[in-house]
Amino acid sequence: MMKDFVKSFTFALAGIWYVFRTQRNMQVHFTAALLAVTVSLFLRLSPLEWGLVFFAIFMVILTECINTAIEAVVNLVSPEFHPLAKIAKDCAAGAVLLAAISSLVVAYLILWPKIIILFFSH
Ligand SMILES: Nc1ncnc2c1ncn2[C@@H]1O[C@H](COP(=O)(O)OP(=O)(O)OP(=O)(O)O)[C@@H](O)[C@H]1O
């Protein structure tokens, strides 16, 4: 039971590591996330604001993982051009785009006003 749990956990980590290693977008998201967390450390966020920032970060990272999974299955099933393969890949990419936009909205609504206040209070 415990061994199965550890095994599943290891597979899940291997999946995340694969996405990080092979997808340039994931490296960009990760760098942006590190930057957002570093900036947030200076902005005295409330617990709810921290929650929203982490939620936004995880939404982007998890949609990138699902996007990579869908791309792998599509490449396996339909290496040749197929309109349905296009729909699957485009929709998966759309999910990442929507998550990235929502994280920009969170940054604009939560971080940006605090950054402005920090600069004008000096
Ligand atoms: N088998 C296919 N059939 C039809 N269209 C495809 C197929 N493979 C890719 N495409 C189209 O090309 C676009 C880019 O596909 P690709 O697999 O290169 O995705 P990507 O997001 O650029 O992947 P990667 O993360 O590997 O760079 C897809 O969104 C889709 O519109």
Give a written overview of the molecule.
- The structure is a single chain.
- This protein has helices at residues 2-22, 24-41, 47-77, 83-120.
- The chain has one domain: Helix Hairpins.
- The termini are far apart.
- The mean pLDDT is 96.
- It has 122 residues and is mainly alpha-helical.
- The chain is globular, with a radius of gyration of 18 Å.
- Helix 1 packs across helix 2 (24-41), helix 2 runs antiparallel to helix 3 (47-77) and helix 3 packs antiparallel against helix 4.
- The site of adenosine-5'-triphosphate has 10 residues, from helix 4.
- This is Diacylglycerol kinase.
- Keywords: ATP-binding, Cell membrane, Kinase, Lipid biosynthesis, Lipid metabolism, Magnesium, Membrane, Metal-binding, Nucleotide-binding, Phospholipid biosynthesis, Phospholipid metabolism, Transferase, Transmembrane, Transmembrane helix.
